[in-house]
Every structure is written in C-alpha cells, then in structure tokens.
C-alpha cells in the first residue's frame, strides 16, 4: 500500500544548529502535510504543500515539496529548545480525502541547550 | 473556541473486554477521523466519518467500529481487546478539504 518514509528517525542537535527531516514516497503524492507532536502531546498541523516544487517558510522553518511530488523536507534554522518534539509528514491516502492521512514514522528532534 | 475534546483521557482494560472512546469535534467541523498511535510510531488511520456516514476505513479488524452522531460527535468502539490494542487513540476534526485538528487523545492500556 501507499507509504511515506521519513528519515532520520532521531536527530540530536546542539541549540543553534540546523535540523532537516526528509519524507519520501515511491508514488506521486497529491499533497504533503507536516505536523509537530510535543512529548506527551498530540499532533499539531504546521503546513500543507500542494504544488510541485513549492517552498513555504514559517519564521525559522522552511518546507519544500519536490518537483516530482514524491519527496518533501522540513528544515529548521538555528534550533531552539522549543523545537523539541517529533515531526511527522503525512499525505492523503490514495482514493481518500483530507481526513484520511498516511503518516510517516516521524523524526524525533532533541535539542541540547 | 474549544478544540477537539476526547474522553476519557486514560483507560485501563483487560484482554477480551470492550471499550468505547468519545470525541467532540470543533464547532462547525463535520468530518471526524480516528487514528491509532502506537508508542514511537506515526498515527495510523482507522476511520473517517462525514455527515454521519463512513467515508474511509483503514486496515483494522472488524473488532474496531465507529459511528458519528447528528451533532457530529463520534464514538470509537473496540471489542475483544488484545494487548496490541494498547495505544494512544487520536480523534481529529476538520472542515471539508482543510487541515485536521487533533484532540489530546485517549491513552488505552490493555493488560
């Protein structure tokens, strides 16, 4: 079935360093969404990318959708301790709708002050 | 405005028992989805309901069932609980075609 693979599984950085997580699929994705889940919390929507090659920025976060719509990345510049959490990419399930998402396994980010 | 609410927050059951989890969506949201999140994994889609009708079902056994009520709240039922059903059960609501808002989840432990 449809899958989204996410790497790395874990990332440990020093505060102020950059961080990137990657999401890949063997099939063309209709869209890609990114969520953040703090420890003990629930996923919180960050952004949705729809267009081929799309790039969106939110302060220190940069999101990209690949030209072939098979991969995506989230880059955080100058990490802060508030960035700690697990970042998930997700895509609409084939034949499904926005309420039917396939999630990657997530990248768990820890930030050392 | 209140976000998505779920009850109970925590639940402990034994194998073979039945459980009912409840979800109230954000006011105005007619779509409700249920996900199972096992520790260390991403959420896995179970069901989506829209306007009280099932609009999607994930790869879960028939022991899992759900329904949506006229006020758009929803229940997830799991019969004949197994140890492997221990997980965080997340409910998410949305407007049609927009982002999903997740509730805090129900932590189910099966002993």
Explain how this protein is built.
The complex is a heterodimer of chains A (113) and B (111). In chain A, a hairpin with a 5-residue loop joins strand 7 (61-65) and strand 8 (71-76). The relative contact order of chain A is 0.32. Chain A contains no helices and eleven strands. Chain A is an all-beta fold. Chain B has 111 residues and is mainly β. Helix content of chain B is 0%, strand content 51%. Chain B has no helices and eleven strands. In chain B, strands 2, 4, 5, 6, 9, 10 and 11 form a seven-stranded mixed beta sheet that branches. A four-stranded antiparallel beta sheet of chain B has the order 1-3-8-7, with no helix packed on it. The N and C termini of chain B lie far apart (37 Å). The relative contact order of chain B is 0.34. The model of chain B has no long low-confidence stretch (mean pLDDT 95). Classes of the chains: A mainly beta (113), B mainly beta (111). The A-B interface holds A 1, 6, 33, 41-45, 48, 88, 90, 93, 96-106 and B 31-33, 35, 40-45, 48, 50, 55-56, 58-59, 90, 92, 94, 96-105.
What is the topological layout?
The complex is a heterodimer of chains A (113) and B (111).
Chain A: E1 5-7, E2 10-14, E3 19-24, E4 32-37, E5 44-49, E6 55-58, E7 61-65, E8 71-76, E9 85-92, E10 101-103, E11 107-112
Parallel strand pairs in A: 2-11
Antiparallel strand pairs in A: 1-3, 3-8, 4-5, 4-9, 6-7, 7-8, 9-10, 9-11
Chain B: E1 5-7, E2 10-13, E3 19-24, E4 31-37, E5 44-50, E6 53-57, E7 64-68, E8 74-78, E9 87-94, E10 101-102, E11 106-110
Parallel strand pairs in B: 2-11
Antiparallel strand pairs in B: 1-3, 3-8, 4-5, 4-9, 5-6, 7-8, 9-10, 9-11
Total number of helical segments of chain B? 0
Straight-line N-to-C gap of chain B: 37 Å
Which value, in Å, is the CA radius of gyration of chain B?
13 Å
Strand content of chain B: over 45%
Strand fraction of chain A equals over 45%
